[in-house]
Amino acid sequence: MSITVNDVEHVASLARLRLTEEEKQLYTEQLNTIINYANKLSSLDTEDVVPTSHILPLVNVMREDERKPSLPIEKVLANAPDDEDGQFRVPAVLE
User: Fold this and answer.
1) Domains contained in the chain, number
2) Most buried by CB count within 10 Å: which residue of 43, 55, 69, 78?
């Protein structure tokens, strides 16, 4: 598979990009280089390679949840700009 200048122009049009003739040539060459490299990778023997989604094993680094007592409501609301009935009071966002 090979990328042509027409392909680059089509993608540029879809992306609403204006490219100069030099840019079109440059991007055509760069995209063809990328595709040729990908084709080299497809020639490798991967028969015995296990498919993975990550190169390293994923480990959950979060701690276990621990139950702890909450702060007293007076301390929680101490810095609130406005409170009512033990809750934060905020301006209405809906009419």
Assistant:
1) 1
2) 78
